[in-house]
Amino acid sequence: MSTPVIEATGLGVTLGGQPILDGIDLVVPAGEVLALLGANGSGKSTLVRSLLGVVTRTAGDVRLFGAPLGPSAPWDRIGYVPQRLPAAAGVPATAYEVVTSGLLHGRTLRPPRGHKRRALAALADVGLADRASQRVQEMSGGQQQRVLIARALVRDPDLLVLDEPTSGIDIPTQATFVDTVSRLHDAGTTVVVILHELGPFAPLIDRAVVLRHGRVAHDGPPPRARGEHAGQWHDHTHAHPDPEPPHTGPSLSVEVNP
Q1: Distance separating alpha carbons of residues 127 and 172, to the nearest angstrom
Q2: What pLDDT, on the 0 to 100 scale, is given for residue 90?
Q3: CATH code at 180?
Q4: Residue 122 to residues 38, 87, 96, 159, 201: CA-CA distances in angstroms?
């Protein structure tokens, strides 16, 4: 049996004296596309952040590719796209520079050979090939999110973690991005994606975990949408405020390294 990409047992997180996650057990095998679903405040983003060490867990154990969470984990194999971009306007960098920074890890300060080609290809995958030289601070919020997605894709990650990646992004760009994720999945990439509904990701999802009040309420086949969200072409680009504690780390160059 192959080593799981993610393995969490008894995971708990308390923030500000309030329990956010309680007793989460989660195993993600290699090559799976897992959707994390749940209402606002159910703990989805906190779960992802705790799995990557961005939020400190108060209970339980986490292993990534068989390694305990910490310096020994293979962070260079992981691409992470956070949900928010606080203070993005203060980043004096071009889209190309931000995406290229995704190829740096550990103490390596020089990008690898072929970095320009890879960065431009990643920007093309999110529809920003013509904006490589534009400063990120001049971009819209949706464009900034696409830069972050490209920054994660440029690594050719073995594990891609996405926190509501299509929020605020137009329908054509969503389709392009989902096609890119599909190609990565076909090549063996494991994907964990937070969604409010499956939307354009529906054909890719192998399994869904639904959180409710910080606990796992469902782990299995993706649940079917009902009511107004059941239509195949339901437009879900509108924003959803999330009361979960905000990410306090850097905005455009988010690292998952502890």
Answers
A1: 9
A2: 60
A3: 3.40.50.300
A4: 30, 23, 9, 16, 19
| pLDDT at residue 123 greater than cutoff 80 | yes
Calpha distance 131→142 (Å, rounded)? 13
Number of domains in the chain: 1
> For residue 166, is it left (φ>0), alpha (ψ between -120 and 50) or beta?
alpha
pLDDT tens sequence across 46-94: 999 999 999 999 999 999 999 999 888 999 899 999 876 545 446 689 9
Residue (of 258, 251, 255, 243) closest to 46 by Cα position: 243
Crossing angle, helix 171-186 and helix 115-125, to 10 degrees? Answer: 130
pLDDT at 110 over 90: no
> The domain containing residue 143 runs over which residues?
6-229
Flag whether 219 is in a domain: yes
CA 81 to chain centroid, in Å, comes to 4
Global confidence as pTM: 0.81
Between CA 210 and CA 110 the distance in angstroms is: 41
Helix (H) or strand (E) holding 208: strand 207-212
Cα–Cα distance between 102 and 215 in angstroms, integer? 32
Q: What is the pLDDT of residue 125?
A: 87
